[in-house]
TrEMBL record:
Organism whose genome encodes this protein: Spirosoma oryzae
Cellular component, GO, one term: cytosol
Annotated PANTHER family: 5'-METHYLTHIOADENOSINE/S-ADENOSYLHOMOCYSTEINE NUCLEOSIDASE (PTHR46832), 5'-METHYLTHIOADENOSINE_S-ADENOSYLHOMOCYSTEINE NUCLEOSIDASE (PTHR46832:SF1)
Superkingdom in the source lineage: Bacteria
InterPro entries in UniProt: Nucleoside_phosphorylase_d, Nucleoside_phosphorylase_sf
The name this protein goes by in its record: Nucleoside phosphorylase
């Protein structure tokens, strides 16, 4: 599974990076954008993670998200960071978006008439987030002394291009009137969601509350941003853990029915057998230990049977095989290869 993590600030980037291993820096060949790629592991499940610092604002977020989606081709994307609290939350709390509300659009007539741009988060991610709240398991990575002090919510998040720093601000009054269901406000979410939606990528925004609008400067000076970023990171990686577990349950190479469906798909996509386009080798397998048969279906049957028994090569797994298939067929509509 491939996970894209987007942040606006360096401190948010560092909070995400702390969870991954084997980190390597990469540079986009055309734009010189800088990325960090690594691995997140949990109970034998692995995800390949790309972290991107977009900078502030929805335009930058949309631009960098589009570039990263086309470069990395992730299964799931998150925008993770800090935000201002609008209601019902306190410093350190976490909000995972049910939807992101772009509040800037509208018609400026005798009075401003809003035309809110609203994009929902992926249903599967909302369900995982709600499960984490019910089970109260997302705090395991937080210090013991702070776990009882923070809560998480799965609610709307507003997004615009303004830093809202006072309850007397016109924008704050506007948000209270037209985005009354939003618990938090940030500056990148709608740009991120628009780009993810256009690329058919499951996406969600997750924010740690670093200020409560009325005391923004004081809260920032107290060190609330790093704490909020750490809490948001703990929540998003709890979502990723559950996403990995759910995917593993669904795609079990030892399950005969699943293996049969995978066999049919592979015979259709790679009719010349496991050696076609080096698919088996690229996934970490060793073609020399597979049977040599003119019947390519038999070759694939033998290869998948070996994989189910833990063989097929030193580094091949079902996950690495599916990842290589996705690279070859990024637009495949087969549910076997979609997260």
């Amino acid at each position: 599974m491939r996970i894209l993590l987007q942040t606006a600030l360096s401190l948010e980037f560092s909070a995400m990076k702390a969870y991954i291993s084997d980190v390597k820096s990469e540079t986009h060949s055309q734009t010189a954008s800088k990325y960090e790629r690594g691995t997140f592991s949990h109970h034998g499940n692995q995800a390949e993670v790309l972290i991107v610092e977009t900078g502030a604002g929805n335009v930058r977020a949309a631009d960098e998200t589009t570039r990263a989606l086309e470069y990395f081709k992730p299964d799931v994307a998150f925008f993770v960071g800090v935000a201002g609290g609008l209601k019902d939350v306190k410093l350190g709390d976490v909000v995972a978006s049910t939807k992101v509300i772009g509040y800037e659009m509208g018609k400026d007539d005798d009075e401003f008439r809003p035309r809110l741009d609203t994009i929902p988060s992926a249903y599967s991610l909302q369900q995982i987030a709600k499960q984490l709240l019910r089970d109260n398991t997302w705090k395991e990575d937080l210090p013991m002394e702070t776990r009882d002090q923070v809560k998480a919510y799965v609610e709307p998040i507003a997004a615009g291009d303004k830093v809202v720093a006072s309850e007397r601000a016109i924008t704050f009054q506007y948000l209270r009137r037209f985005c009354s269901d939003a618990l938090a406000v940030g500056m990148e979410g709608i740009g991120f969601m628009v780009a993810s939606h256009a690329h058919n990528t499951d996406a969600m925004e997750i924010r740690g509350i670093s200020d409560m609008i009325s005391d923004k400067d004081e809260a920032d000076a107290s060190g609330s941003q790093p704490r909020a970023a750490d809490n948001a990171a703990a929540f998003v990686f709890s979502v990723i853990r559950q996403k990995l577990a759910d995917t593993r349950k669904r795609n079990d190479i030892k399950d005969v029915v699943f293996r049969g469906k995978l066999l049919n798909a592979l015979v259709e996509m790679y009719s010349q057998g496991p050696e076609q386009d080096d698919i088996w080798k690229r996934a970490g397998g060793d073609v020399s230990i597979l049977i040599n048969s003119m019947n390519r279906r038999s070759q694939w049957y033998n290869a998948l049977e070996r994989l189910a028994l833990g063989g097929g090569g030193a580094n091949i797994t079902l996950q690495t095989l599916i990842e290589q298939i996705r690279i070859d067929n990024p637009n495949s509509q087969n549910d076997l290869f979609r997260d």
